[in-house]
Amino acid sequence: MNMEFGWKPEQEEYRRRIRQALDDLLPADWYEKWVPQSYACDENVEFSRQFCAGLAERGLLVRHWPKEFGGEGGEDWEQFILAEEMKGAGEPRGGQYMNVNWIGPTLMRHGSEAQRAEHLPRLARGDTVWCQGFSEPGAGTDLAALRTRAERRGDVYVINGSKIWTSYARRADFCFLLARTGTGRKEISVFLLPMNTPGVSVTSFPGLTKDGHLNEVFFSDVQVPVTARVGAEGAGWQIITDALSYERVGVPRYHVGLAIIDHAIEQLKAEGRYDDPVMQARAGLVVAKFEAARMLTYLVVDQRVKRLPATTDANVARVTALDAVNDLMNFLADFVPDCLAGGHPLLEEYYRINVPAGITAGTYELQLDLIAQRGLGLPRG
Ligand SMILES: Cc1cc2nc3c(=O)[nH]c(=O)nc-3n(C[C@H](O)[C@H](O)[C@H](O)COP(=O)(O)OP(=O)(O)OC[C@H]3O[C@@H](n4cnc5c(N)ncnc54)[C@H](O)[C@@H]3O)c2cc1C
To answer: How much is the pTM?
Structure first.
């Protein structure tokens, strides 16, 4: 398949404007104080409201959305330019990257008129925080095993159960919630649940990713109107399959990885230590893998822009990026063990988030399963 690798002048201009906005909107101590405390912590999530509102005012937040929903009818490439620049700055959008990437587009496709009217302008303004209520104890990779139940009683549903690992839940205004509405394995529905509804409670627990990512959400006789359900009852599986397809290539990890390896090489050169051929070969391998991840990601975006059917290229892109990050971390541990001191300002957060990066949105092993079965046609099991 032919691919066009050059950026258009208007895309370069869009990137330049995003960089200018980062200069204007980020506090002077962003890299020293804010980035190390994790983009999911309460303070950063609150900052994301102000930051994303600033991006929205400049017409930069949802440019790839259709005009009728507050965007400029841009292409998926613009979503990736934004994602690269945001990731390269330590993701100041916090959890609002989900709003832009998949929550908004999913509501455009499956939401009722009233849901679109209520939520899309707020998402496009950049001041609303959402959390994703999918995983439960015992229902992660096997999401269809979820047990949180929504029982219809007249004009309301009554929700009982719990979610786990719900990033941003403590500060979220709404939850994009999956709950069981029937007895069949995939009889699941989606609800747009205000987090301040009586009966919703959140507790947090500690972990490598620092505060803000790891929460449990409990639902005790939570009542939501029937109008909070997205699509038909039981249509949740199709809706989240669509939603996750917007996230197929996910986060541009290669963008930060390349900046960190460049920084490490500069550090080694400055110390007069970059003359070891083994070190150079290992660095070359890291760069080559990140570049491969970048090209695979661009291939998937290109397929998406051309409305071609989804393939396992997205899974290959993700696995390649995760492998490249591991190679980078091994390189740093072997040759630049003091890299946290004076190293790249995103390195610590990048390291912390790399561990769950192979877990969230489909584990590393699951990606390999999908490549084996769907891409290579190998038998299950
Ligand atoms: C930091 C962090 C943030 C998260 N944020 C959210 C969030 O905001 N919202 C949300 O809903 N969820 C969130 N998650 C949850 C995440 O989506 C799940 O952890 C993930 O789906 C894996 O599910 P699990 O933890 O139940 O592990 P399991 O599914 O039990 O997997 C355990 C191990 O078994 C392997 N395994 C399981 N099934 C297969 C298979 N079929 N083939 C091969 N290997 C398999 C897995 O690869 C893994 O190594 C988050 C997780 C983390 C770590």
So the answer is: 0.94
